[in-house]
Amino acid sequence: YYFVDSVEAAWNSGREEFPNLGYKPRHKEGYFPVPPHDTLQDIRSEMMLTMEQVGINVEVHHHEVATAGQCEIDMRFTTLTAMADQLLWYKYIVKNVARKHGKVATFMPKPLYGDNGSGMHTHQSLWKGGKPLFFDAKGYAMTSQMCRWYIGGLLKHGRSLMALAAPTTNSYKRLVPGYEAPVNLVYSARNRSAAARIPVITENPRAKRIEFRPPDPTCNPYLAFAAMLMAGLDGIENKIDPGQPLEKNTYELSAREQARMKTVPGSLEEALAELERDHAYLLKGGVFTQDVLDMWLSLKRENEIDAVRMRPHPWEFHLYFDV
After folding, report:
1. Which of 43, 78, 224, 322 is deepest in the core (most CB within 10 A)?
2. Which pTM was predicted?
């Protein structure tokens, strides 16, 4: 049994709250409201200030799309290992500040049916000697050829990457079409339905990066970040062409166009099978080892896939209890 509740939840619009002051963000209508719709402005500010106190550079925070108090706090970029460290600080701080205010924070990718899930859009760029390597004023969306090869590697290995970057059964309840979830392994500037997005908000070379959108915060960041980097480096090493960018909204394609689209796996079980098939790129330089990957596959299958698969689900009672 579980029940999710929130003073902001759309399903509480008629609840007696002595008094009920209204302003409940409806499903999919929570993006960037200000107070009084956004009741969490001050709590997020305290989270942000606490992060700043421990050395995390926070760029922005705001309410997100889903009802019931979905929030976003964005950290400024840093090096790979430092960002993995900061992600663990981030989650610890968020949970503890929430508890201080009598609330609980979850990083589940899909805690609510019928509303947007919580992803972890991961911005990536390569630098050498203080120079950004992904910028080219004449390239597509001002990206260099190296950047596009890096994207090619992410897209080629995208299905196996999900076993490390979206590594829970709940991850694949988020990765479904229609909820801003990036299920299609294509790239584009601006297009938020593409797995790899190139932000074009500025012409500053230092800001040129790619945003890989399928990962979620249930991942181990040390494994997920390293795996994404290895996929991108494989793309550069082998000059993997990502193809033409897709400028259309991928959720508005015809059935024929959609059928030709390469997508992320539809389940954790499928993602693990892809990792089993496609992992040579992770073993280069001894970054990952075969025994680590074998143990990951084994633990995920036994402790999560089978554990969830073998237990009756609440919706099964709805469907079948009275047959």
Report:
1. 224
2. 0.94
